[in-house]
Amino acid sequence: MKTGVAAMTERTDCVVVGGGPAGMVLALLLARAGVEVTVLEKHRDFLRDFRGDTVHPSTLRLIDELGLGEKFAALPQSRLDQVSIPGEHGTTLVVADFRLLKTKHPFVAMVPQWDLLDLLADAGRAEPRFRLRMNTEVTDLIRERGRIAGVRYRTADGGTGELRANLVVGCDGRWSAVRALAKLRPHEYPVPMDTWWFRLPRRDGERTALTPGMRKGHFAVVIPREGYFQIAYLAAKGIDARLRAEGVERFRERVAEVLPEFADRTDKIESMDDVKHLDVRLNLLSRWHVDGALCIGDAAHAMSPIGGVGINLAVQDAVATARLLAGPLRRGRVTAGDLARVHRRRLLPTLLVQAIQRGMHRGIVRPAIEGRRNGPPRSMVTLLNLVPGARFIPAYLVGIGFLPERAPAFARRD
Ligand SMILES: Cc1cc2nc3c(=O)[nH]c(=O)nc-3n(C[C@H](O)[C@H](O)[C@H](O)COP(=O)(O)OP(=O)(O)OC[C@H]3O[C@@H](n4cnc5c(N)ncnc54)[C@H](O)[C@@H]3O)c2cc1C
């Protein structure tokens, strides 16, 4: 990497901005298709706490198709077979049962996101056309004759440079710089809640299903992990400053009220610094591209944490993008029409998942955090109890999703 302050200009076929799940999958697939691809990632490593750690059956199938199944299986992980919701009178209602899916991996694997990204980065490095530059933040887009022709970046050591390319793909997440620089503005859907993430210790064999708690106006989702629980506390949007002002003692009480079985260990939340606020967003770009640049993953559509589908949608976007754009990139010319095809392919799955999430916000989250209900709506309970196979549908929608993508032939190593 060039150091110092002088700007340098380089060239590649495709610049991928951001090394999250969307960026790393896209870059690996394009490199396998014979496209010169460079990922610019602003952080020095992939280590980040409380990111999406759910790897769903459709992504597990893709990992197999890419020839990475064995390495993935060797990562530390836990498995979720079911999602359940507490009923009104201490009962538990299974709402999704992944074991009903006819697939090789009928479960959600809980894997630290950095392990997944490291795995993808290692696979990428085995491809001669793959480059990954950490500590490199995109700060501007290069425009030429009305078209995006590359990016300007800054490195952690103060260097700057320009990287020209036939295509810039913004995989830079929910606060995407590429999106803002390309003047693409997402439509924001109203969201009733924010989320506060923290950990509590988990004893051997304790709780294996993902089970939310709903009680007295509190809502929490407990995700069993290896040796600990990852817990999301959901409360009304915009009250982070108030929660912090109330202090850790009051936060522990809130947790104990919604999850009484954990009252014996809330002291493990030592201070509010252990509690990470997620400003929940649900948004969607009406146009995912301008000439020469495309946004995918969270950059095109931030998802609610409901269903934990963010990673998997981002990965599916990446596979569709690689499948549709590898040819144009190899030929050296990507048209606005090519980019529009990616948008058309991925719009419906995104819209449908967001519609379901908005329905869950209205029907389950809002009544719970406003203290109007301590369980799911009665109609949902009746449906799940009466309709055979009703637990298959949510499992399919979350685990496989609409229009699932398979690895293109050029990327397969199975
Ligand atoms: C606290 C939290 C919990 C979540 N839980 C879940 C879950 O359980 N399951 C799930 O599926 N999803 C979850 N999500 C959402 C999930 O993490 C995202 O949907 C998913 O990571 C999106 O992938 P992405 O590749 O589009 O973007 P990201 O994962 O956000 O990756 C973007 C990358 O771009 C980099 N970047 C940003 N700006 C620049 C720049 N200017 N230059 C260079 N690099 C840049 C960032 O450093 C980052 O590495 C959670 C999100 C959060 C914040």
Topology (SSEs and partners):
Blueprint (H helix, E strand, L loop, with lengths): L7 E4 L2 E4 L3 H12 L4 E4 L13 E2 L1 H9 L3 H5 L4 E3 L1 E5 L5 E6 L10 E3 L2 H13 L4 E4 L2 E9 L2 E9 L4 E5 L2 E4 L6 H5 L4 E3 L4 E9 L9 E5 L2 E8 L2 E9 L3 H7 L1 H11 L17 E3 L4 E3 L3 E2 L2 E3 L14 H22 L4 H34 L8 H9 L5 H8 L15
Helix pairs in contact: 1-4, 1-8, 8-9
The protein binds flavin-adenine dinucleotide.
Describe what you observe in this structure.
With 414 residues, this protein is of the alpha+beta class. Helix 1 packs parallel to helix 4, helix 1 runs parallel beside helix 8 and helix 8 packs antiparallel against helix 9. The chain is globular, with a radius of gyration of 22 Å. The N terminus is likely disordered. The chain is built from eleven helices and 22 strands. The chain has a six-stranded mixed sheet. The structure holds flavin-adenine dinucleotide. The site of flavin-adenine dinucleotide has 35 residues, from helix 1, strand 10 and helix 8.
Roughly what fraction of the amino acids lie in strands?
25-35%
Structural class: alpha+beta
Largest sheet: 6 strands, mixed
The parts where pLDDT drops under 50 for at least 5 residues are 1-5
How many individual β-strands?
Answer: 22
Average per-residue pLDDT, rounded, comes to: 92
* Helix coverage percent: 25-40%
Gyration radius from CA atoms, angstroms: 22 Å
Tell me, what's the shape?
Answer: globular
Sequence of strands across the biggest β-sheet: 9-3-2-13-22-21
CA distance, first residue to last residue: 34 Å
